[in-house]
Amino acid sequence: DGGKRPDYLAGLNPEQTEAVETLEGPVLVLAGAGTGKTRVLTTRIAHILNTGRAFPSQILAVTFTNKAAREMKERIALLVGGAVEGMPWLGTFHSIGVKLLRRHAELVGLSSDFTILDTDDVVRLIKQLIQAEGLDDKRWPAKQFAGMIDTWKNKGLGPADIPEGDARAFANGRGRDLYFAYQARLTTLNACDFGDLLMHPIAIFRKNPDLLKEYHGRFRYILVDEYQDTNTAQYMWLRLLAQRAKGEPQNVCCVGDDDQSIYGWRGAEVDNILRFEKDFPGAKVIKLERNYRSTEHILGAAAHLIAHNEGRLGKTLFTDRADPDDVKVQVHASWDSEEEARAIGEEIEQLQRGKHLLNDMAILVRASFQMREFEDRFVTLGLNYRVIGGPRFYERLEIRDAMAYFRLVAQPADDLAFERIINTPKRGLGDTTVRALHDYARARDIPMLAAAADMIETDELKPKARKALFDVIQSFRRWQELLENTPHTELAEQILEESGYTDMWKNDKSAEAPGRLENLKELIRSMESFESMRGFLEHVSLVMDAETNENLDAVSIMTLHSAKGLEFDTVFLPGWEEGLFPHQRSLDESGRAGLEEERRLAYVGITRAKRRCHIWFVSNRRIHGLWQSTLPSRFLDELPETHVEVAEMEQSYGGYGRGGYGQSRFDKSEPFANSYSTPGWKRAQANRTDATRDNWGTRSGHAVERIGYGESGPKGRTIDGE
Ligand code: ATP
Ligand code: MG
């Protein structure tokens, strides 16, 4: 139109410009990391608003996390000069789903004030149903069925759609009936689960074509970020809203990268990329190839690594950022994870002295238990950190439970600890008993544990509760006697075993359970560096007290899964060892596909870095007091030598003794030191004759159980405005 082009378009490259300006018709932007996909979406929205093509309320925009939605809102406001009056339909699939469902709840038999059940509620409800059916809930665990329902819902399958074979898998073929019963029960309760936030809107749109048409009229532009990680239900939902009658505008734009599909384990379907072109004929497919984020070395390393995957759509990536000062990707080896945390802490402090902000640094771990070592170290150093996408290590449910046991042993007057674990695992000591104990303790001004000891002598409690309470008190007495003379790590393990707490998670069939068990092992491990149980408890209270102010300059710690879409000047990637990364469970459960998803995760990790990328592996992990040698990750072998260099290892071996730290430590490690004195992961590997890729051996040659690491995906799902 000859007018001045708005500023926000000025910096875009031709392909990006095309993606922003092709506002009519379906558009698929398929491009590698850091090529500006998210920026294209944001600019596109700004452009739509700026040219008056739609009001903010007529744009439907989907992001992968709530955080990403907030950031996108802020950026749009900047681009259009703050004139955006909100964007009511910008959010995650779930948050938009809630909004739709609140409006039309009555169409699926709910009222608009329905409640959204969390995982615990769901499991409790299913358990009731299983029992009501006269089934044995030990043989058919509620958690397992909750997992099946979740999987079905990710695939967009309601009870009526359950294939014969699938239904037979649970409760001798009664899975389907149970699923029906579950949905009916939810309706009676005026409640829904997470999956329903998509399933209900899908049902509503299918049954009410007129209403769907109304929404077609409303949503003039539809945009989706991180499209490669949509699952089938999300795709169905999207297609309903985006696919229009012939002649009507289908202004839908999805951006994604098949190489960054990392949620297959949660039902994401990378094939949705291929479906798009089929379902939206004439879609314009735009490729972006210039990376604006990373140095040539970082990009080269990432590209070479991901080229080892077979199932790829194939893309090229290049950058103009070739600065002779750019450093290669650095690979470091450490003796063990404690030293790894120490070395990374040093590196961070050094960057800090060079005036780099902590905000520009991130540590990305494969499994959440790895965070513990960094948190401990940073508290010791006084380095600010924040954990993104999940609780801090010592704030996790299973860690808090375990700590409550330890506290109560060391400090019998700790009533909060008592209340937390008295019925965890379940012992038939429900609210009534706890209330009675509470009242008794209050009336006499004594701790609840003491009250419990008193009350079992009376007949104020039901016989069953009395018996259970008697057993618990006996256990605590025993543990308290052991406190002074048993090594505290041993005692801690004993407590978790004898209390039934470890078994509780072993019997738990949910996806989180293995990770929780791994965290518990890590907790025991973390106690090793303390003299006593009390010393350890004190340390934890200090860590828990550490500042977590959002505005503070702080290093970010998060899982690789939650790092998607983010970028940092410096990225640290610890724990690149076989079994941890690639993760053993992924390999066991999904074979080659699992390995490729792990490799994509590695690609996501490296491509988060703008200027510096440090990869670490350790030679030993110490588990239950046993040294286990580990193998460097195969992904390290897949990095190109031209873009990678092996960092000097003097930190790791000998002469490191800062503040006298080194001495005792390396005395311990003396027998193994030889295999470790030469830099280079390849050398480290060659020196290791006593372990193979598939089987982790110990130095002493004993067989050791395969270590199952925790899954690292974001656990708590939250919804904006709920
Ligand atoms: P990912 O796949 O990791 O989500 P992405 O493709 O979404 O990456 P963006 O996050 O949008 O990439 O962009 C990466 C970085 O490059 C950002 O800092 C962004 O501001 C910058 N960038 C993108 N396009 C341009 C451009 N045309 N000029 C300058 N910087 C750009
Ligand atoms: Mg992005």
Automatic annotation (TrEMBL):
Keyword Hydrolase in annotation: yes
Pfam families, alphabetized: UvrD-helicase, UvrD_C
Gene3D superfamilies: 1.10.10.160, P-loop containing nucleotide triphosphate hydrolases, PCRA, domain 4
Superkingdom, taxonomy of origin: Bacteria
Binding site for ATP: A31, G32, A33, G34, T35, G36, K37, T38
Residue ranges crossing the lipid bilayer per the database entry: none
Chain ranges of the UvrD-like helicase C-terminal domain: 296-565
Region (Disordered): 676-698
Catalytically driven reaction(s): ATP + H2O = ADP + phosphate + H(+); Couples ATP hydrolysis with the unwinding of duplex DNA by translocating in the 3'-5' direction
Annotated ranges, domain UvrD-like helicase ATP-binding: 10-295
Entry EC number(s): 5.6.2.4
UniProt keyword terms in alphabetical order: ATP-binding, DNA-binding, Helicase, Hydrolase, Isomerase, Nucleotide-binding
Presence of keyword Nucleus: no
Protein family membership: Belongs to the helicase family. UvrD subfamily.
UniProt name for this protein: DNA 3'-5' helicase
